[in-house]
Amino acid sequence: MEVKLRIAHLYPDLLNIYADRGNIIALRRRCQWRGIGVVLDGFTLGEEPAWMDYDFFYLSGGQDREQNLVCGDLQQKGAGLEEAVESGAVLLSICGGYQLLGEYYRAADGGTMEGVGLFQAHTIAGRDRCIGNVVIETTVTGSPLKLAGFENHAGRTWLDEGQEPLGRVINGHGNNDQDGGEGIVYRNAIGTYLHGPLLPKNTAFTDHLLRLALEHRYGEGVELAPLDDSLEEAARQAALRLGG
Amino acid sequence: MIKNMEFTGKIQESIPAMAVKVAVSRLIGAASGRAGHSGTSLPGKVVLTADKRIIGRISRKYREGTVIVSATNGKTTTSAMIASILKKKGLKVSRNREGANLKAGVASAVLADVSMTGRPGSEIGLFEVDEAALPGVAWQCSPRIMLLMNLFRDQLDRYGELEHIAGLWRAALRSLPEETITVLNADDPMVAGMASVRPERTIFYGIEDAGAGGGKMQHASDSKYCSECGAALRYEAVFVGHLGMYHCGSCGNARPSPTVQARDVRLGGMAGSRFTLVAPEGRMEMEIKLPGLYNVYNALAAAAACMALGMDLRTVSEGLADFSAAFGRVEKLSIEGKAVMLLLVKNPVGFNEVVRTLMIEPGRKTLLLPLNDRTADGRDISWIWDVDMEVLAPAVAAAVTSGTRAWEMAMRLKYAGVGPERIEAVTDLRSALERALELTGTGETLYVLPTYTAMLALRQEIHRHFSTDRELGDLVWK
What we know:
The structure holds 2 protein chains of 2 kinds.
Chain A: E1 4-10, H1 21-32, E2 37-43, E3 56-59, H2 64-86, E4 90-94, H3 96-100, E5 104-106, E6 112-114, E7 121-138, E8 145-159, E9 167-171, E10 181-182, E11 184-186, E12 189-192, H4 203-218, H5 230-242
Chain B: H1 15-34, H2 42-50, H3 54-59, E1 66-70, H4 75-88, E2 93-95, H5 103-112, E3 124-128, H6 134-141, E4 145-148, H7 156-159, H8 162-174, E5 181-185, H9 189-192, E6 202-207, E7 233-240, E8 243-248, E9 260-267, E10 273-279, E11 282-288, H10 293-308, H11 313-322, E12 330-335, E13 338-343, H12 348-360, E14 365-370, H13 389-392, E15 396-402, H14 406-416, E16 423-425, H15 429-439, E17 445-448, H16 452-465
Parallel strand pairs in B: 1-3, 1-4, 2-3, 4-5, 5-6, 6-9, 13-17, 14-15, 14-17, 15-16
Antiparallel strand pairs in B: 7-8, 9-10, 10-11, 12-13
Helix pairs in contact in B: 1-2, 2-5, 4-10, 4-11, 6-8, 10-11
């Protein structure tokens, strides 16, 4: 049986800011180097994936105009996406994508954009942008792991009581520049402000998501062949030093 | 067209006050020069604190007015091309230098050649202005020509989103006097859409050759949506990034027909390009010594601006033919006996164009890629993932990466499909250049693709530690 990673990339034409396609490139290559096949399908406005056909959903950020276009359409996809996440599929959402999956986004002018409500969190536009290198420590892989990235967002995201952030900020702003949390985790769905892009140099995190996605399809006990990540690790170490 | 723009008198001031400001700016200029700083923006910065309108006070006295150039890509090259054309007419030009394109840099430039009474020595002002600084400079200058070329994704950590910049540009256009002629790129939907702010006295330029681009939209494309109704635009031809021939299928908004056109575009790789310039004044063959379609755009923009100033086709053609590349954009030299080509890369679209041009050259290539993440480069280096490095990968014989983010570039190449055995990361620039020269075979060319501050640092290293066939000019440009 040929093992395949099945990725649904949501709004690849609209949400593609900050080079987030680097995350897709990383997933593809790391599968290819291990002889794992990749199915990568894009779904834009008005297109509904067969949700159970995919194990990895990807939603990144866009510019304001594009995000406004996506916001209404995403409401239609919300139920399907939620079902997939409840079944254990992996979802990685970055920046604007992360915000759109929360309960709502309140703009600077007071206008409110309704989110999908997959994440129990909401976002309020701030005056200044949170910009810079960022380092967080996460335990989602089972042991403490530092992730390095870059953040650039005006929104301040607040998690509801009892919700789990992706990690603790070691250096940078994180969700809201106040409570020390960064991102969110709900089952295998992740929201984060880290771009840079996130997956190429944080390989332990990437392989963790890859394993979860394959287990969603093929059951537990998926073993990933080790790769020579010396270059990636050097890049991560260099980025960790920049981020403090 | 207006000539000899009059001093409005609205912001008249006494001669002694002006003399003090000029003297202060000279002193600062001299002192900072001695201290070894480039000091290009400092005099302006200091005088601006005393007089916020100093740019307008002086620039309004230029006999031939002022030309303002702004864009994400091509400001420096295009300004240099315009200067080359103006020189053919024997005009004395006051110009700011790249990197000094904020308000203080423009103020320093206007202060550089004025008399103690505030009379400029130059006859025309030519200022390239940072996209975000445009409103602050434009209203003061009352420019004769405002050339707006393109808006691409560039350093979002510094500028915010494209829509925000577009808003600033529209505000700048609203502040202009009626006489100003705006010269707009018809092929950039967002820029062309700005004509609605002031439809009078607008000239469009564009490439009128559907076969000139690769046809395929590159990844790093912005502004693919109609500026009127937000629907996706349809492209009949794509030239560079999102620049092309487009129309909106939904509301009927379409690319304006350009009055100054490049037709029959012939790209000749690194050697340069040719095209036919077609304008109401006639048509003429143009030759530029710079590679790539993006430089055809720069030349076309320079031609359109100069024709709006009243220059004839022959002067434009001679000025462009004389032109050699602006600092570091494209430079050929020999280092330690090896042929080296320096090509500045600062954002995905520019980098993609360099990639496209490199792929015209035959054979596998040895590359040196210094990536810095200082403020002038953009601190967020994620943009390298928007570059179509995958296109370049099969042609890479060896690549040395360097700079503050050497490892990120090395990793990008690996994920683009360059075998790790062909990639070396050498953080130190001097060692990296030594290694890259070593890897370059006799008779081959080393292609060096640095970001902005890496280019500055690299030139210093070349100047100090390597033997070259000629001196590198303008080492202290900042």
